[in-house]
Design brief:
By secondary structure, this protein is α/β, with parallel strands linked by helices. Helix content is 36%, strand content 20%. Strands 1-2-7-6-3-5-4 form a 7-stranded mixed sheet, sandwiched between helices. 45% of the residues are buried. The structure holds ligand AR6.
Length: 177
């Protein structure tokens, strides 16, 4: 499914964030230390190789809502944008912190003249954010930033399961900018 807002294509794809070769920057659902981990962070660091942790180490720690950018090493992309999502029920206000991840990631993409960005559903795995709420925050944050974007032309959500696709699809089709 896709939707075009202010000339920017927002699309949903089922798959692995570490296998998006047609996208310039992939977003990592990072930990504060910018180390490898489970879920998205594990997939990204495994595919990128140890050079990614080496490049990340002087940039850590980051705070919930923050984003930093690195090269992509052995991933088939140009950049990785690392976002620390809020832990649901602990880092407050969680909706603002989660929205900040998307907004800060897209601002970094703009600063680096990046044309396409792929996001996972940040915070919705180990950090416990309910997927529907996380999707509403993500889509609303992206709608807010889209009118400012000059370089980014494509924003992709990469979702792990068919049920996650259904939830994001319902949210993306029901919300309006
Ligand atoms: N591609 C796309 N989506 C994925 C993938 C993948 N390869 N793997 C998992 N997901 P999570 P968080 C989905 O836990 O909640 C890590 O251990 C998953 O189903 O990766 O922000 C870090 O080290 C879920 O919907 O990120 C941190 O400590 C979503 O991606 C912590 O987890 C996010 O799941 C970050 O937790």
């Amino acid at each position: 499914m896709e939707k075009t807002i202010s000339g920017i294509c927002i699309e949903l794809v089922r798959g692995d964030i570490a296998s998006q070769p047609d996208i310039q920057a992939v977003v990592n659902a990072a930990n504060a230390g910018l180390r490898t981990g489970g879920g998205v962070a594990g997939a990204i660091h495994r595919a990128a190789g140890p050079g990614l942790e080496q490049e990340c180490s002087p940039l850590a720690p980051i705070s919930p809502g923050e984003a930093v950018i690195t090269g992509a090493h052995n991933l088939p992309n140009d950049y990785v944008i690392h976002c620390l999502g809020p832990v649901y029920g602990r880092d407050k206000p969680e909706a603002r912190l989660l929205a900040d991840c998307y907004k800060n990631a897209l601002r970094l993409a703009e600063d680096n003249r990046i044309e396409s960005v792929a996001f996972p559903a940040i915070s919705s795995g180990a950090f416990g954010y309910p997927l529907k709420e996380a999707a509403e925050v993500a889509v609303t944050a992206i709608f807010m930033v889209v009118p400012e974007l000059q370089h980014v032309k494509k924003i992709r959500f990469v979702l792990f399961s068919e049920s996650d696709m259904d939830i994001f699809g319902t949210v993306l089709s029901s919300l309006e900018p």
